[in-house]
Each structure stands twice: as C-alpha cells, then as structure tokens.
Write a structure and sequence with these properties.
Elements: H1 3-7, H2 9-33, H3 41-59, H4 66-93, H5 101-113, H6 115-137, H7 179-191, E1 194-198, H8 205-219, E2 224-229, H9 233-247, H10 259-269, E3 274-279, H11 284-287, E4 316-322, H12 325-331, E5 338-339, H13 345-354, H14 365-374, H15 379-392, H16 396-403, H17 408-413, H18 429-443, H19 445-455, E6 462-463, H20 472-481, E7 485-488, E8 493-496, H21 498-511, H22 514-528, H23 538-551, H24 559-578, H25 582-599, H26 605-620, H27 625-641, H28 647-662, H29 666-684, H30 689-704, H31 708-721, H32 729-746, H33 750-767, H34 773-788, H35 792-805, H36 812-828, H37 832-850, H38 855-870, H39 874-891, H40 897-912, H41 916-928, H42 935-948, H43 951-962, H44 969-982, H45 986-998
Parallel strand pairs: 1-4, 1-5, 2-3, 3-4
Antiparallel strand pairs: 6-8, 7-8
Protein name: NACHT-NTPase and P-loop NTPases N-terminal domain-containing protein
GO molecular function: ADP binding
InterPro entries: NB-ARC, NLR-like, P-loop_NTPase, SesA, TPR-like_helical_dom_sf
Amino acid sequence: MDPVTAVGLASAIVTFVSIGTRIATRIRELSEAGDIPDVFRDIRTRLPLLISIVVRTQHGTDSLSPEAEEAFEEVVRQCFEQVSQLDEVLKKVMISKGDSRLKKTVRAGISLVEEGRIQRIATALRDNVQLLTFLNVAPAEKGRPQTERRPSEPLPSYMSATGLFLVPFSRDARFIGRESNLRSIDSGFATQSRVAISGIGGVGKSQIAIEYCYRYKYCKPDAHVLWVYGGNIARFYQGYKRIAQLLELPGWDDPEESILELVCSWLSSTTSPYLLVIDNADNIEHWWPGKYKSGGSLDDPSKNLSKYLPDGLDSSHVLITTRDNRVASRLAKEAKPIAVQPMSNDEAKSLFLSKLGGRESNLDEAEVRSLLEELDHLPLAVSQAAAFIEENCASISDYTNALQGENAEEFLHEELDDSRRDEESVNSVFRTWKLSHDQIRQQKPRAAELLSLLAMLDRQSVPKSLLRVPEVTTSLGVLQSFNLVTPRAGLQSVQIHRLVQRFVRLSLQRDGATQKWQETALACVSKDYPTEIGVAEWPICDALAPHVHVITGYKYKTTEARLDLAHLLCWAADFDIERGMYIQALQRAEQSLKIFQELVPEHDERLAAATWLYGRLRYYQAQSASDIDAAAELLQKALSISRYPSLNFAETAFELAHLHYDQCNEKPCLEMGKASFECWEALEGPSSSRTLDNMHDYALELAMLGHEEDGIAMWQEIMERCPGCDASENTKTVYSYRSMAGIAEFQYDAAMAEIFYAKLITLGEAMYYPEHIHVFDYRLSHAEQIMRQGKLEEASRLSEAILVNCENNSEWRISASCLQTISECCRLKACYGKEQTYRLRTLELHEKHLGRDHRETINAEEALADCYLNSSRHSKAKDLYERVLSWRNNGLGERHTDTVRAIECLGICHAHLRQDADAEVAYLDAIGRQSDADARLLDNLYASLRNQGKWETLESWSRQTCKTDTVYRSRAHWSLITALEQQSKMEEALEMRAALLAVDVPNDDLLEERLLPTNPRVRDIRRFGRMIHPRTWSA
C-alpha cells in the first residue's frame, strides 16, 4: 500500500511539509556554517519552492480537473517518498560542529557513496517543481462554465484562467525599476510580433521577461503565456514538447511527428493570443548552424532553431532575451533590440537594500555608493553582494575592499541561490560571463584575444587606433554583440565594463597569460605614443594618458619589454611636464633612469637622455640646496656622456643654463646658454625652430644678467633668421613678436612691449588654448609692462584675472607670479596692508612647493620683510632679514649684492628700533663687503653715528663722501658741518656753510633729535622663472 493511500492525501501533504521544512532548515543552517556538501546546494534551492507550490496547489484543488487531481496525488506521493529518502540520507552524511575528525572523514566518505542517490532525488524534485507549476496554471475542465468577473472583484488567480501560464518562476514581489524597458517591450509589440531584449550577462534580462509575463497575463487572462529555455537545443525541444502536450496538439505523442514543426505551425496559425518567451538565446550556433561553427547538438544539425520561431497573427507575441546582439536583431527580424543597461544608482541601491533583510538603518551611504559603483550597478552582482554580506555578516567596506584585492574571484564566483533563475543559468557574475567568453573563443578566437588586450588597458575610452591586432573590426563587432564592450566618442573608441575587465584579468591570471597580454598592451601604446611632443601631438598624448598610467604600473620580465617601458616613461614624463604634472613626471623619469642604468652601456645615448630628464625634474622640484646640487650633478653627468652635437647635449646645456641663472652664476649660465643654441645650430641649421627657440633663451639670459645690448643684438638676429625658419607661419610670428617684446622691454619702452605681449596673447590662444602655460606667461608679461607704465589698477585687475583662471592649474608658479605682480602694484600705491596679504600668500606657495630653504622662498621672505619695513613694522622685518641674511651668507656668499642688501636692511631695522650701535655695526659690515662703498649706505651710517654722537667718526666718513659725485653729496656736506660744529671747529664749519649757501644748496641739516635711514632700492621684479618659460616645442 502506498503511503498516500495509507494516510490520506491531506495527512501526506502535512507530513511532507513537516519533513521537507526540517530538511530545508537543516541544510540552510549547515550552509551558513560552511559545512554543506555540494550535492545539497540544488536541493537547498528547490525544496522550499516545492513545499510552497504543493501547499498552494492543495488550496486550489477545487479548480483542478479530475485528471489534474489524479496527477497531483501522484506528485505528492513521489514527493513524500523523495523527502523520506532524503531525510534518511541526510542523517548519514551531514557533519555536525561537534563531530570528531574521524567521524567527519567517515561521513564525507558516505556522502561520496550516496552522491548519485542524492543527485537522483534532486533531479526528481526539480521535475516535480515543473509539473506542479503546470498544474497550477492548467486550464479548467473543458465545458466547465466560466464566471464573469465584476469590475470591483480582484484579479482572478491564474488557476482559473483559460490560457496556459508556463512561466516556471514565481513573481518577484519586490521587482525594482526597469519601467522604461517594460514600456519599450509594449511599444515594440505595437508594431511587430517579435521583440528582443539584449544586454550583458547579469544585467537582468530574464527578470524583466518574468515581470512582463505576469503583467501580460494580468492584462490578458485568456492568453497563453509560454516560456521556453533557448540556451541549448535539448531544452528548447523539451519546452516545445511540453507546450504540445498541455495544448493537446494532435500528434504530440506520435514519435514520427516533429514536435518543433508541430508547435511552430500551431503558434503561427492560431488565433488564440499568446506570449512566447525564448529565454537565454545566447549561442548563435544553435540558431544558424549552417552559417556559424556547430558546437554539437541533440537535434538534426542540418536544421536551425531560427526556423521554429513562429510568425503568428496580430495577437501573437514573441519575446527573446539574449546576450548576443546579433541573435537579437536577426531573431527580431532586423528590428533594433531593446538594450538593457545596468541599473541607475537609485535602482541599484533599492535592490541592494531589499536583499539585506532590514539592515538599511545601519548602513553608511558612502560605503553603499562605493560598492554599487564597483559593481557597475549590475543587478546580479548587486544581489550576489547583498546575499554574501547578509549570509556572512560581512561589512560593506570589507566586501568592497575584497573586490579590489586578490580575492575578487572568490567573491564574484560565489553562487547566488535564486529560485527565479533557470536551473541551467549560473548564478554568479563571473560564471555568467565565462559562458559568453567561452562562446566567443569558439566562434571568434581573435575577438577573445582582443578582449584580453582591452583588459590590460584602462577600461574607458580605448582608441580603436591603439588596437593593433588582426581582424580588429570584426572582433570588436563580436565583443559589442555580447555587450562586453560598448562604443564611445563617435564610435572612435570603446569602453569595457569594470567587472568584465576584472573577470578577464583573473581568467588570464589563471591561465598564466597575464604577462603576455601586458607586454602586448605595452607594445601597442609604445608604438602609438609620439616620440617628440608638440602642440599637434597633445590630443594623442591626452587620449593615451590613462592607458599609459595603467600599463606603466605592471611589472615586466623580458629585456625588450622593460626597454619599451623605459622609453614610454620618458615620453610620458615629457608630456607630464607640458601639463604641469611635475611630481608624476619626476617619478616616471626616475623609474626610466633606473631601467636604463641596469640594461644599457654607460655611454649610451638613451642613458644620457634619461639622466638629463631626471636631472631636469630634480631641479624643477628642488626644495633645498642639496637638491639643487644633486640636480646639477645629474645634468653635468648627462652632459659628459652626451655626444656633440646631439639633442641630449643641447637640452642638458639648456637646463644647466637655467640652473646657473637661478643660482646667480653668471659665467656658467651664459656659457651653457650659448652652448645650447650653438648645438642646435650645428644639428639643424641656423634657422630651425629649435635653434631660434634657444637663441631667444640665450638673449633673455644676457639681458637679465645686465648685458642688455648683447641680448637686443641676439633678438635682432633672430628676426633676421625668421624668414628661413622651418616652422609654421604662426610660430615664425611668435618668434618675431617675442623678440620685439624683449627688445622693447630692455630698452625700457614698456608701452611698446605691452603691445607685442598683447599680440602674443592673441596668437597663443589660437595656437594652444587660453589656459596653456605659454599664454599665461604672455599674460603675466603683459600685466607687468602695464604696471611699469604706472597703470597700477589695470595691472592688478589683469593679474587677479590670471590668478582666478589658473586656480586649477597645477603650475603653481603662475599663481606665485600673479601674486608678486599684485603685491608690487600695492607697494607702488602704498597700500601696505594689502601688499602684506599678497606677500604672505606668495611665501606660503613657495614654502609649500619648494621648502623653507630654497632661494626663491628666501627672496619671497625678503619681499615680505621689505613690506614690513615700509609699513613701519620694524621688529617683524628684522626677524625676517636675519633669516634671509643667514641663508645668503651660506648660499650666495658674503660679498654677493643680495647678501649686502640684507645686511643694510637689517641695519635700517636696528636704526628704526633705536638700536643705533647695532645699526652702525651692520652698516660697517655691509660697507666692508663692497669694493666701492655705496653712497646711500654711507648716508645711513652717518645717521647712526650722529644719533650716537660719534662726531669724530662722523667727520671722517663725511669727508670721504664729500669727495664723491652722488645725490647724497649735499647731505654728506651738512653732516660734516654738524660734526665740525659739535667738535667746536667753528671756523671750518662756518666757511663750509657759507660756501653751500652761496650755491643755493638746500640745508639738509635736520633739526629733529634723530635722523632716520634711507631705505634701499627695491629689487627688480622681472620674471625669469624656471617653469614659466615659453617654448614652442618640447624635446
């Protein structure tokens, strides 16, 4: 006697539910503990679903036909037997936490023996799920009268509908978003009978189709809703056979009848409304085996599945889901498929929170956003992440960090238990994409190779020109068909999804092919990267910059690849300099130099170039005297191993000229400046663009170092050579304007210099762009010339505008020069409060980027001290002058003019603070360091001597000054008269007084008790910064 007959149907169901629930609970508990054997995973998914459907079917038995009731009893009987067997097996193989090692080993062995039995039970449970689903939606007995539903009544259940409902998945009560896709399906069916939706694996195509089926059935209760799995031929055949059986199509049980033709014919001719879903129609070989390689099938390979898709009447609708756009467009009769994109951030967030079981209030918004971005808002990846976090009580930040680390594969391979996905559909992101990847390898191996190359580059905006591989156009077409890459920027570049890139990288790592494809990516970028970078090459370098950043981070093993890397690092560093990214340029130059030092001979030109570049950047980023010394040593070494004439020699000499200029070493500066342009002259001729560029540099050095006439002569020669220059007309015009501006500036014709700098601004904006460093330099020079004409408000306004525009520019020296010009305008207007503000900002910039002990920082401190001195803040000024003096004594030498000036200023501060003895010592120290004593300095010494009443000393020093022809001579005479009178030498004093009054010399013998010193001459603010130096080309 069978168990159902013995205990009755109701009792059997109760017993089945009780045992099944206990088994499901036990399996879930062990799963959470991590001790569940693989054979139970499918049962864990299917058993709760089966229990739910049995209970639901029991409640609706009144609507079942007698045949259906009989079938239901048979299913319950089988389920009862299966769970009883499963309970018995479970007791044998399940491992408890307290089990000994021996017991665990024995149970593991038993599980291997029982694996086949458990698998058979799992298969039987799966079949029963499908059969009960069909019973739930089976039509009522033929002839049974149907009741009409009043508008106020709720929607009838699918069990009372007349049309089949063969969707093997329950509806998602928390379905989120996708309204635009659902509307697009409706719109598509308004004009055509077939609609295809396509998208990358895991994007939610099947879930959209399931939701659409339920909405379709709601709107059309009498329509058939049919579901067929299109992922393989066997399942496609089974789906059609089930349709034929439930529709009782004539001949469905005839072995000689073709089920595929039978169902297709009926669907094409029936007037009954229906929706047919072909899910996961991903393999193009199954649909057109004659056109594509056959991967083997259970059906006649001479036929293709595309022939068995019906072309029905107006009331028929066929919905296709696929990852392959080629399948989508062809099955939809060339209609454009509906592209399913990843969710929006809000949709993905709602989906994520819905899977977490009420933990929303404890979540960090930023962490959730970061995770969703890392998952590219893919629904399957989001659901997978939420399930893992929920089951393992993991934090969101830990999961995000794991995705970015070495364990990403473990997390993204983790299967998600989801009863709403087909049993043959894998439930992890990586496993989903592996299916697509395997199909691509089989259909188009070149496309798989191209995907490997793309994975090694930056994932966004990969220029098609960079992909130097065979069959690139058709390969890209295949990858785009599978939605693994998407076109961008007018179809001239492509983008690979973030997680797809990670999947491919991990796959290559498993296969041991990572190094090969990294070297291939390096070779592609190296071949495409310009070796000489001018304005025309900037767009190319910009497009390649993110890919350079990625591939220079890999570790290469072969000598050829490492040399390619070293060259690319040099070229990229040069472009970084153009963009003002000096720290990154320095790091790349250092890495390149280390590779060349290891791999090439000592006097190799490649080593010379790398040494020059690294030395140049060490100098640009120098923050101390030792940094400058190290840069100078590198540049001298580069010069010594460079052949003459060569680019390396010319550029190294150019950088050394700048270094010596900044260190106030006039002779070596001019020697190197001349050597640089003469080397270019020998290399490329007297009128090449690089020769003229370096001639301009040399002319500027001459003029700035006091050789104005020689500099002007050099600029005149440049203008004579311009007509024969090999450069463009715009570049020639730049040379001419720049030369004329230089001549006007150093002939002190600021108005004329202003005109030429204005022309250079207009031309520079046309050649480059408004924020380019060359244009900023012309603007600053233009503002400076306006200031020199006394138009201080206009100069300040122009400098402020430059300062605002370059706030986001990484070239901080532009900002520093703007602040310097504004400060000078404030000084000339005697607005010392504002001047102090700008001087402090200038000093902060220098300290931040160069350090406190850099020469330019010291100059900025001196300018601030001058501001304090002019605004009578003598104590603050004195402290700064003492620091400036200490540095200059060591950095420039005791007799350098800047050192002497600092001593004099320190003495002036002492005088204002009534520290006349200290002032005298400072003045005498300054005079002793000069070959010819400065008359103003002597005058300040007289004031300090008079204030102290040192009349004999005052007499001696005044007599010396009276013999000179200076503007301070009359002041010296009156000081001498005062000294004589104070010593009672009245006769000589009266004689000198009468002589001075006779020639109408004003009486400078002041009546005040104290004499105040005269402030020193203000330093020239002409700019000749290392970085703000316009060049029309870059080596």
